[in-house]
Here is the input.
Amino acid sequence: MTASLNLNPSKLAMVPFVSVDNMMKIVNTIGAPTMIAEIAEYVEADFLRWDQFDKTPRVAAHSKEGVIELMPTSDGETYGFKYVNGHPANMARGFQTVTAFGVLARVDNGYPVLFSEMTILTALRTAATSAVAAKHLAPKNSKVMGMIGNGAQCEFQALAFKEVVGIDTVRLYDIDPAATEKAVRNLANSGLTVITCKSAEEAVTGAQIITTCTADKQCATILTDNMIGSGIHINAIGGDCPGKTELHKDILLRSDIFVEYPPQTRIEGEIQQLDDDYPVIELWKVISGQLLGRVTDNQITLFDSVGFATEDFSALRYIRDQLERTGHFVELDLLADPDDPRDLFGMVQRAYEN
Amino acid sequence: MTASLNLNPSKLAMVPFVSVDNMMKIVNTIGAPTMIAEIAEYVEADFLRWDQFDKTPRVAAHSKEGVIELMPTSDGETYGFKYVNGHPANMARGFQTVTAFGVLARVDNGYPVLFSEMTILTALRTAATSAVAAKHLAPKNSKVMGMIGNGAQCEFQALAFKEVVGIDTVRLYDIDPAATEKAVRNLANSGLTVITCKSAEEAVTGAQIITTCTADKQCATILTDNMIGSGIHINAIGGDCPGKTELHKDILLRSDIFVEYPPQTRIEGEIQQLDDDYPVIELWKVISGQLLGRVTDNQITLFDSVGFATEDFSALRYIRDQLERTGHFVELDLLADPDDPRDLFGMVQRAYEN
Here is the structure.
């Protein structure tokens, strides 16, 4: 018994761990477009049962360099949380601006059932969520997406909109041409027509959907009012913390604004520029058919995305369901599991007697 | 470059992980009594710089079966949090009532620097904290401790009080004689005189210190007023959540009450039985010399322990400092670290080309 505790901890003590390497293997096994589309189904399914979730504001620890956040949620059966940092100065120092990991646990006994990297997974779920929103809000038969900001999110968004919304063309612009070149290279075999543009104005020309995903800008104005024609769907990703916005306020005033969770978006999203009671529409109500999304051809719809805990939960739930299918995980000996729960000390004391 | 990402992720991507097996090895390498005494030094050092810590209430997700909590804190340089569950019905189903794990991270860039099991570590830090409190509050030259409740915390507490406070005798009582027998067996070579008692009254006879660490009781009365003579120090461990207390209210009214963090203890500790403005003394103020602890020989002192985030932080900080000394950890590939932070997609895409 004692030896088996060490060399072969009981099944109860083990928690599946998906490392970065494993996550890359999962993406490459399933294929990024398929995986994003499948995560989109999980995100949509969880938006459809919105009322079942405990929705807690993030727990943030702010410092002068950045923020570390815990984002917990629960559907009553499964509990999940994500640890995520945001440090704008990291990139210049050779670190990632955002890194993340997450946990799922059983509500009935509190035992973790999954521990996973979430830097890559967050990129996948953010793109999946944008595509779910666009499926309900963008003009029917949208084929062209303008993308302003060609950083870490760019390719994930492009693939999500191809797979879930059905676009066939992306028009790319970034203030740094090297970022655009990187995206062109990475999308070479995606099946998308990729057009490089010299300005934001050029990128949005002829597009039915505009995605803004710039980073490291404080209250920038990526899009101005004159760039936005009628009937456009705007997928605003980059404005996601206090003091960080991408769109001119006049665009917001012309748009119907759809958000994940109003209490969080009013602090972090584009709508931090508006009054606290400015009317916004909760995305889950559109997905569940309680409210209408796009109703006219010339309406401007805006998804003011900041990322919400339920989306991380959906993505973790998806990964848990892929463990057997892909086999890309290891078991971590994370939970002490003495034969007699009252004998924790004895377990430690006798661990190496043999 | 690409192959090295997978087979040998950069140092930045790796986070040291202390599994249950590694934690047991660390305890056995250092020795439980020494390790508890060393953790006590870290706990005491952090109580001395109390003002430096961000003190957030726990973030709790309650269900009918139990609770899952996140306990974050930060000293401005290092951030830490613990995940811990409490499920009273778990033991009957073959699971641990409490399991835990924790993380330390750098505040300046948000990168995790330690991921560790904390079921065993919490037992060590709880005992260490009790001993630190008793060092400042118990009668000088206390030699005998009565222990009511001989479950998972019992031996850790006994060793902590021997090592840090200097007791030489423990008097054990539990409603289940098997629990007491287990503790007697585990303490056989501890150097303590261990006396088995048939009642709580017998266990406290002649003791200068009384430790109550019962579990799974809702508002029980382990100690009644007539059992408590003058001059006693009470170390009350078991009452640590709403609706869970161990001491009769009359004992509280006769005692000077010392607590970790009043906003949390008023909800979770023995003092949930008292008015919200009942005077209590913050332990850190005694440790730092700002307030007096024990002032007379016949005073009853009560440490109403519930466990606070800074203590977990201290314990994790200690473990991080033992990594090199003991070598008992593995590196987890937890953080995505592309050569170009904007090229997360390319990292994933090219991961298995070679």
Notes: The radius of gyration of chain A is 22 Å. Chain A touches chain B through 83 residues (CB under 8 Å).
